[in-house]
Automatic annotation (TrEMBL):
It comes from the Bacteria. The keyword Oxidoreductase applies. This is Alkanesulfonate monooxygenase SsuD/methylene tetrahydromethanopterin reductase-like flavin-dependent oxidoreductase (Luciferase family). The lineage of its organism: Bacteria, Bacillati, Actinomycetota, Actinomycetes, Micromonosporales. Keywords: Flavoprotein, FMN, Monooxygenase, Oxidoreductase. The keyword Oxidoreductase applies. Residues 2-163 form the Luciferase-like domain.
Amino acid sequence: MLAKTVTTLDVLSGGRARLGIGASWYEREQLGLGVPVVPVAERFERLEETLRICLQMWSADDGPFNGKHYQLAETINSPQPLSRPHPPIMIGGGGEKKTLLLVARYADACNLFGRGGIDDVARKLDVLRGHCAAEGRDYDTIEKTVVASQAPLDDTDAFLAEVSGYAALGVSEVQVTPDRHPVEFAQRLGDEVLPRLADIG
């Protein structure tokens, strides 16, 4: 159903969908939505099977899928997404043993948390580089994105310094979290921060 939903969004948006996925960590949200909370090891097993199913459904292979957690008699997906070869896959999280390995195997982008600072992001990207080497994957084909730790409007200079540090690491996208007034937040971000980002590149 997830693959079909992303496909539908991709078709409706003219090929602009992106699948952002992770192993789940926010148990309050899971419980609030009635999603079963399973052990961490099982979450990663389910994540990898989900990635494999999506990639199979977005390919010419409409045969069965037989995993430990998911079994599909057919992986029919019609219509196929407009994005080629498929909607980009972004895996969120910075787990060095499993998450970043899954990025190297399956993803088009990684999404790291910036709360550990630029040095922590640099270290995680080095780990990703190692996984890519082991998997025979070109590290440079993976887009690097980060959730900023600095609030862009609280201290714009500190935020811009953080973004500049990420840019030097090859990060191409920095995500921010709006406050309780999203319209005003977006307006101020556009007026006060975005013009200054142009100098970073």
